[in-house]
Design brief:
The structure holds two protein chains of two kinds. Chain A is mostly helical. Helices cover 70% and strands 1% of the residues of chain A. Chain A has helices spanning 18-49, 66-72, 75-106, 113-120, 122-125, 128-139, 145-154, 167-192, 197-204, 209-237, 241-246, 258-267, 272-299; strands at 52-53, 61-62. In chain A, helix 3 crosses helix 8. Chain A is globular, with a radius of gyration of 25 Å. Chain A starts with 17 loop residues before the first helix and ends with a helix. Chain B is an all-alpha fold. Chain B folds into two domains: 9-63, no CATH class; 72-277, MetI-like fold. Chain B has 14 helices and no strands. In chain B, helix 3 crosses helix 13, helix 4 (73-104) runs antiparallel to helix 12 (233-244) and helix 7 (146-170) packs antiparallel against helix 10. The chains are: A mainly alpha, B mainly alpha. At the A-B interface, helix 1, helix 3, helix 4, helix 5 and helix 6 of A face helix 1, helix 4, helix 5, helix 6 and helix 7 of B.
Chain lengths: 301, 283
């Protein structure tokens, strides 16, 4: 804030000076510059990269759409997308139901509400890497509380993260644990900001609790629900940290979500062009996906 | 817990069900975190005890000492503080100016356009930016340098800061600045003297938010840094997983070190949490 105070604004009525007119643009320029340099330009560069091949030890060569052609026939990429989609839909769905339930359970005033709500939001603010560590400890077959409980209940020793059947559900459970608080907080805020009169009127008219929920709460909550589902599903769609810490995509490729596949192909196998092509495809999918979600949820109202 | 502990049997049944469900939710939420803290305080022998001990029998800080003495966790922590601190400060200064522009000068169509341009980056999958950002930073020799990560984090924070601060600035009446300007104060001076102090709580909330997001960031940090010269705490912690093998106590302790400051910070901004998480879409 060392800028000297030299931008004098004229009193109301008279036209602003040249400097006065320039001031707004001076305010916004640095931010625009940063966003262009780190978002817009890289996006363009990414598209350019996706049209190239990076052979080891040689300069990159332009190959046109060959990376995309390869991509269409890549079984691994397709299965990775399917895994990502399954992860996103399951996790977001369960989080939404549980979050809504919690919000309905905890709306209104009661004793200890502050401390209860604060406690419930803890998983969400812990770094995803740490969440990964927490669940590594729980799932571990030798020292884990979770595995111990399973063993006591079923008599079988179980290493969930090395089972190709259970690894993905285990990751979904981690995501549900971490992000249900997010749904809960958003929906609670939404519910508490609803006007009271329609509910009072409905109750006077003798509507049942279920009717009120179905025909009043849900429709009025729709805008908040759209925002919550959109933000959460977009983040779930690009999940990386917890998967990296817990399974690295394994066993086999059972949990190889899209971002992890892009990471591996770029930074373990140095296929920058191919990785960029996957990333651009992912971006296009995300754009369609968010447009569809927004339209579906807004339209049905 | 609810206000009516008495009343008809039906009411009492609902009260008890509700109480039970809330307690259950609390247990599921807190038990995993407790287990990490518990494990971090155990000796290597006790970690492997079967059945697992519900609390450390001979609590020890040995794991924490090892982390800082043998595994350079302090260095990673310091890197994180320097990188996150610089990025948050830089994005706070630049982002607030942009936010003031958005709140006071952007009108009508331009406002809608800007809304899009500020919010769109939030929708871009990080994976779509990571390859070019890596190549660009490599070109400038900024891989595994603190400065590289500071620039990246500043850029990612800016839209968020601009958006949050805009919503706080909009709550401040324009009349106050205009009064100051009529008294001969310049626009920037009245921004500094009048608007900023009034928006201070918002500024604090926004900075703590950026702090949480940046401090927890892993994907770009993993790719852009690798050695103790610049690697952040999440990267250092993740690299421990390979190095410590079955030293689960140390792994847990590293998790605790990385989690505690953040939980404290989050409790401070709890009131603004929803607004921050949705970039102002829900208040």
């Amino acid at each position: 804030m060392s800028t000297p105070a030299k931008f004098i604004i004229q009193p109301r009525g008279s036209p602003p000076s040249r400097r006065g007119r320039l001031l707004p643009w001076a305010l916004v320029a640095p931010t625009v510059l940063f966003v262009v340099a780190m978002t817009v330009f890289p996006l363009g560069y990414s598209m350019w990269t996706s049209l190239q091949e990076y052979p080891l030890g040689q300069p990159p060569a332009f190959v046109g759409l060959r990376n995309y052609q390869k991509l269409i026939h890549d079984v691994n990429f397709r299965s990775s997308l399917a895994t990502t989609l399954l992860f996103t839909i399951s996790a977001t769905g369960v989080e939404f139901v549980l979050g809504l339930g919690l919000a309905l359970l905890l709306k209104g005033e009661f004793s200890f509400q502050g401390i209860i709500r604060s406690s419930l939001m803890i998983p969400m603010v812990i770094a995803p890497v740490v969440v990964g560590i927490i669940w590594r400890l729980l799932y571990n077959a030798d020292v884990g509380l979770f595995s111990f409980a399973v063993q006591e209940l079923t008599g079988k020793s179980l290493s969930v993260l090395s089972s190709s059947m259970l690894a993905l559900p285990a990751l979904i459970l981690v995501d549900v644990w971490e992000w249900t608080p997010f749904m809960f907080l958003l929906l609670l805020a939404g519910i508490q900001s609803l006007p009271q009169e329609p509910f009072e009127a409905a109750r006077v008219d003798g509507a049942s609790t279920w009717d009120i929920f179905r025909h009043l709460t849900m429709p009025m909550l729709r805008p908040v629900i759209v925002v919550a589902l959109l933000i959460r599903s977009l983040d779930a769609f690009t999940v990386f940290d917890q998967v990296f810490v817990l399974t690295q995509g394994g066993p086999g490729t059972a949990t190889e979500v899209a971002t992890l596949m892009i990471y591996k192909s770029a930074f373990r196998f140095s296929q920058f062009g191919y990785a960029a092509a996957m990333a651009i495809s992912l971006l296009i999918l995300v754009m369609f996906f968010s447009a569809a979600v927004t339209r579906a949820l807004r339209g049905s109202g | 817990m609810a206000r009516s502990g008495s009343g008809s049997p039906r009411q009492r049944l609902w009260f008890l069900t509700r109480l039970a469900l809330i307690v259950l939710a609390l247990i599921i939420t807190l038990l995993p975190v407790y287990w990490m803290v518990n494990t971090s305080l155990k000796t290597q022998v006790e970690v492997f005890a079967s059945p697992p001990t519900l609390y450390a029998q001979n609590p020890t800080f040995g794991n924490y000492v090892n982390l800082f003495v043998r595994r350079h966790l302090g260095v990673y922590l310091l890197n994180s503080l320097i990188i996150v601190g610089s990025a948050v400060l830089l994005s706070l200064v630049l982002g607030s100016l942009a936010a003031y522009f958005l709140a006071r000068f952007a009108k009508g169509r331009m406002q809608q356009q800007l809304n899009f341009w500020v919010l769109a980056p939030r929708m871009i999958p990080p994976a779509a930016l990571v390859v070019p950002v890596f190549l660009i930073l490599q070109h400038f020799g900024l891989i595994n340098k603190k400065l590289g990560l500071v620039l990246v984090y500043t850029a990612f924070n800016l839209p968020f800061v601009a958006w949050m601060m805009r919503s706080f600035f909009q709550e401040i009446p324009v009349d106050l600045e205009e009064a100051a300007m009529v008294d001969g104060s310049s626009r920037l001076r009245s921004f500094w003297d009048v608007v900023l102090p009034l928006a201070a709580p918002g500024l604090v909330a926004t900075s703590i938010f950026s702090l949480i997001i940046t401090f927890n960031e892993f994907f770009f940090a993993l790719i852009l840094t690798s050695t103790p010269e610049a690697a952040t705490l999440p990267v250092g912690t993740a690299s421990l997983i390979g190095k410590t093998q079955t030293l689960y106590g140390e792994m847990a302790a590293a998790g605790v070190v990385a989690a505690v400051p953040l939980v404290v910070f989050a409790l401070l901004v709890q009131r603004h949490l929803v607004r921050g998480l949705t970039m102002g879409a829900v208040k």
